[in-house]
Amino acid sequence: MTRFIGKMFPKKSPVELLREHAQTTKKASEFILPTLEAFLSENTEALSTISKRVDQLERNADDLKVQIRESYSKLKFVYFDRVDVLTILQQEDAVIDAIDDFAKYVMLNTLEKPLDKELANLLFQLAGEASRAIDVMFKSVEGLILVVESSFSPKSLQDEEKEALEVEDLEASTDKTSIEIGKRLFSMKNSIHPVDLFFLEKVVRLLARIADHAENVVERIRMITHS
Amino acid sequence: MLLAFALVTGMGMAFAIGANDVANSMATAVGAKAITPKQAVIIAAILEFLGAVLFGAHVTSTITKGIIDPGTVSNPNVLLCGAFAALVSSAVWIIAATLWGMPVSTTHSIVGGMAGFGIAAMGWSAVNWLKLLVIASTWILSPLAGGVLSYLVFKMISLLILRQSSPELKVKRYAPFIVGTIVFIIVYLFSLKTLHQSQSVSIVWSLLIAVIGTFVSRYLVKQWSKKSNLRQYDFVEYLFRKLQIMTSCYVSFSHGANDVANAIGPLAVIYWVMQNGSVGSHVTVPLWILGLGGIGISLGVSLLGYKVMKTVGEDLTSLNNTRGFSIDFSTATTVLVSSVLGMPVSTTHVVVGSVVGVGMARGIEVVNIKVLKTIVTSWLLTVPLAALLSAILFNVFIRII
To answer: ipTM score here?
Structure first.
């Protein structure tokens, strides 16, 4: 009968693994601003180093993703519906994938002319907003552990609600910044190389996508804590 | 010579129970890091012995005279060989369990073993089928009771402490009462069933000691609160970690009370027949035999249990103390109540029931509900197979002895 009871529990709680995945994503998000900085200053060496580190984090996140999926396939009693948690995981994974794409994409092209300061500032603003969205996402995932620890106490659910509201504000702000950058970028169509224009447009899209997925995670968490 | 063999086999059984079974009953306390494997071994070594000596007589009595009435056996030799066959068949089962990692319960195998020799020696009518049916029904009811109790205990902790706006204050308020409740249950059952005191005397004594326990723990909670600088939920878990030290003692105590009979039940029959030279309906279990069983379990825990406990501790990383407490408290209470009712139940199976109960209360994530199916299959198989082995061994022994 050795270790018979041990077989009844998951090796590691899937919610804890989800938090680890979010933490890995947060670590990767710390490279968003340095990536943009290195790209705009054409520091290819720094870009290559960053890309390798983000790539490693993305692989770690993939390992965690597999562990969570395997764990959920065996679980009988769960804190949250497995479809919801796997959807959160998918979105969380899309965040780190987008960061990895961003870090790799900016290595593909160097701009013909340095970017004007105002546009560069707007890009930094968007990158900052994407990083902040990931911070909120991490807080929200961590909040899930508190929800479980507190046995779904009303206060912990309210805290999750607050994060959802915060991310809604961020979402509006990210959209606004993306549109502003887009407008500004296309208004420069006669003074910027067409390849650079579409290249930068994709950079903006990637940054916005990072923020979008992070916001989706928070919204999904809000849904499950309110069901 | 036979008594020496029986003593060695009985001690060996007790040793194996200590080495194997205790790890499962203490798994949640070690897994939730309430106690270290070393502390678990020390607690189990002492409390298993105490449980066996103070409460072990009830279940032992069921094993010795509940399944087969010794009074119906006219030839003492038949009873000697039969009890020895049941003991050996049970030992074989626990060895098989150890080697194959199967959820074979020693409780089920000893019950099957006793019934098997009875049928082989005197036919189907020798078995007290009604009693056997009651015992078998407790094998379903005990995990269920553990599950219902753990569900209620966790829900209560959840409503009174975890879901409150200031769980830290609430846990300080309720923890002493939890201690008081555990003390009350143990003292009440001990007074009523072991010391055979009246209801009123038992209630008065247990209330008195429970109140003392409540005040002592209130003082201790105050002391621990001064030292602690933790966030709210960590403090709740910290206090439950302390409480779980007590429930792990409670589990060990209850396990000793129930499982000692599996090792020394047949031994008591052999000793009785050899001492009295005849058989009768009354078999008294000497205290020294209970003590011997207790020592055997304690030795098993001390010498081999540490390694198993260590592995178990590494297995259950996802368990925390409020959940571990709910499982341990429910397991120990179910097993102790079963013990005083004289019902041989499997502690491991009750733990499984309690784990499922907390899982259903949304307290823990549980992997693999197949474990429950394995349990049912295992006891459906163990009883007839142990009975068959015991019957075969009886036929061999009766020709030799």
So the answer is: 0.80
